[in-house]
Design brief:
It comes from Arthrobacter alpinus. InterPro entries: NAD(P)-bd_dom_sf (IPR036291), RCK_C (IPR006037), RCK_N (IPR003148), Trk_Ktr_HKT_K-transport (IPR050721). This protein has seven helices and eleven strands. It is about 30% helix and about 25% strand. It has helices at about 10-20, 55-60, 75-90, 105-110, 125-130, 165-170, 210-215; strands spanning about 5, 25-30, 45-50, 70, 95-100, 115-120, 140, 150-155, 175-180, 185, 200-205. The protein folds into two domains: about 5-125, Rossmann fold, CATH 3.40.50.720; about 140-215, Alpha-Beta Plaits (2-Layer Sandwich), CATH 3.30.70.1450. Strand 5 (about 95-100), helix 4 (about 105-110) and strand 6 (about 115-120) form a beta-alpha-beta unit. Strands 3-2-1-4-5-6 form a six-stranded parallel sheet, with helices on both faces. Strands 7-8-11-9-10 form a five-stranded antiparallel sheet, covered by helices on one side.
């Protein structure tokens, strides 16, 4: 069980809170308006914190210091980015994601290494994939036999700058495409994994746990 902090208790935040709680995790959800918590179902056991999501004291009330991940999904781009930066830079939360309405801003923050989900393409599933990496292995596509899965991979920052071929060889996967600055691209022989990239690869379903373990750690140092 891990602890997750969500900023924004709109339809988006409530959906995430319920999904995470159903998966057995602990959840704290922050909103400036106490009435927003009415969107949470009866029996929700997570922590409800009234306050500004980028305020450090408010985040501490939500137990951000022990959070595995932080998702900022309020209706304001500036608030979401500021809160995400505080979570990452002040409290060193490794897994963060911000919901962004402005595609131009989303590209800028992707370059800064802050995962974003554009509102026009938003879904609770996309956010969960960025803060709960193990959920991504369910995949976007499964070929007819069920053996191969096309899925979004979560990589340790240590892989930044390494060739796509290094990723394929280490994890025994085939990279199908990358999403870079919101656009898909086919990797070439010299393509390297860059900060902010999303990697989509074909994985043997029975090897998914091994793939996740290999890529969640930095690559072996070259001798």
């Amino acid at each position: 069980m891990a602890h997750f902090v969500i900023m924004g208790c709109g339809r988006v935040g409530a959906t995430l809170a319920h999904a995470l709680e159903d998966s057995g995790h602990s959840v704290a959800i922050i909103d400036q308006d106490e009435r927003a918590f009415r969107r949470l179902r009866t029996g929700f056991t997570g922590r409800k914190v009234t306050g500004v999501g980028f305020d450090q004291d408010t985040l501490k009330q939500a137990d951000i210091e022990n959070a595995y991940a932080f998702a900022a999904v309020s209706s304001g781009d500036n608030s979401n980015i500021l809160a995400t930066r505080v979570a990452r830079e002040t409290f060193h939360v490794e897994h963060v994601v911000a919901r962004i309405y402005d595609p131009g801003r989303a590209e800028i923050y992707q370059r800064l290494g802050i995962p974003t989900v554009a509102a026009v393409r938003w879904s609770a599933d996309q956010v969960l994939r960025r803060i709960l990496p193990e959920s991504a292995i369910k995949g976007d596509f499964r070929e007819p036999s069920g053996r191969l899965i096309l899925t979004e991979l979560s990589l340790h920052p240590g892989w930044i700058g390494r060739h796509v071929l290094d990723i394929e060889n280490a994890a025994q996967v085939r990279v199908a495409y990358l999403t870079r600055f919101g656009e898909g691209m086919l990797p070439g022989p010299d393509t390297s994994y860059q900060q902010g990239d999303t990697v989509h690869a074909m994985v043997v379903g029975t090897q998914s746990a091994d793939v996740m373990h290999i890529l969640s750690t930095p690559p072996a140092k070259e001798s």
